[in-house]
């Protein structure tokens, strides 16, 4: 099983600041197979980034994904109050085929 | 636009089974697989399996093999997830999801809360 470990567990920042979230895989992951989701309380996850660096439809350009191999990151360049959520990385491959990280909670001060 | 609408919350006793539905619209149902992902309280998202919307083929996570059955009804544009031998650890929100390319999930249902309690 490919285990995804996200850090930090919680990020508390002010509006306008930059947030950098990390996702580390226990084995190499193809960049094509790495995605990021945003989940707000009581809602389903929402696709933000696919293929490690491609923004999904309608996602603002302040969200940027990077990385390769075992180290991936999601940057939110200028935090806005509506970015308050839990962010998950997800990979495809291995067994089970799809696995998720444990999430990073972003809080806005 | 793609829409996935799931059935409502369920309360079940340990040992029972539950069946959750996911009605799809906004795309050709037979074109994509429907996946099921669950989220237990305080736990990470967990992929359970998928059912091919076209031919009905299935693939299950080893963790759930033997306890989960995924089916679909093409005439109704609906996928189903049945989980048997329920235990308290199965208390979770169950989501259906789909995507054109299969590596990630573009669209999600609203989730169905299943509570297992005696």
Low-confidence stretches of chain A: none
Number of strands of chain B: 11
Sheet/helix structural class of chain B: mainly beta
State the helicity of chain A in percent bands.
under 10%
Q: Classify the helix fraction of chain B into a percent range.
A: under 10%
**Straight-line distance between termini of chain B:** 40 Å
Short description:
The complex is a heterodimer of chains A (109) and B (118). Chain A starts with a strand and ends with a strand. Chain A is mostly beta strands.
What does this protein look like?
The complex is a heterodimer of chains A (109) and B (118). Chain A is mainly β. Chain A has strands at 4-7, 10-13, 19-29, 34-39, 46-50, 54-55, 63-76, 85-92, 98-100, 104-108. In chain A, the strands form two sheets. In chain A, strands 2, 4, 5, 6, 8, 9 and 10 form a seven-stranded mixed sheet that branches. In chain A, a hairpin with a 5-residue loop joins strand 8 (85-92) and strand 9. Chain A starts with a strand and ends with a strand. By secondary structure, chain B is an all-beta fold. Chain B is built from no helices and eleven strands. The mean pLDDT of chain B is 96. The interface between A and B is medium-sized, with 23 and 23 residues.
């Amino acid at each position: 099983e490919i285990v995804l470990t996200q850090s930090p567990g919680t990020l508390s920042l002010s509006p306008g600041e930059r947030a950098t979230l990390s996702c580390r895989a226990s084995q190499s992951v193809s960049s094509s197979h790495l995605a990021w989701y945003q989940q707000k309380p009581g809602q389903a996850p929402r696709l933000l980034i696919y293929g490690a660096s491609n923004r999904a439809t309608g996602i603002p350009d302040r969200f940027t994904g990077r990385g390769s191999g075992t180290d991936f990151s999601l940057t939110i360049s200028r935090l806005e109050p509506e970015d308050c959520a839990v962010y998950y990385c997800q990979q495809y491959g291995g067994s089970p085929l799809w696995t998720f990280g444990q999430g990073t909670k972003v809080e806005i001060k | 636009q793609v829409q996935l609408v799931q059935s409502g919350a369920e309360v079940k006793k340990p040992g029972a089974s539950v069946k959750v539905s996911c009605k799809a619209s906004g795309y050709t149902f037979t074109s994509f697989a429907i996946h099921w992902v669950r989220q237990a309280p305080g736990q990470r998202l967990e992929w359970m399996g998928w059912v091919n919307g076209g031919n009905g083929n299935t693939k299950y996570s080893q963790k759930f093999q033997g306890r989960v059955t995924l089916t679909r009804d093409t005439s109704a544009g609906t996928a189903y997830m049945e989980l048997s031998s329920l235990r308290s650890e199965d208390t979770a929100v169950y989501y259906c999801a789909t995507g054109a390319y299969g590596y990630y999930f573009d669209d999600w249902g609203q989730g169905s809360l299943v509570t297992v309690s005696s």
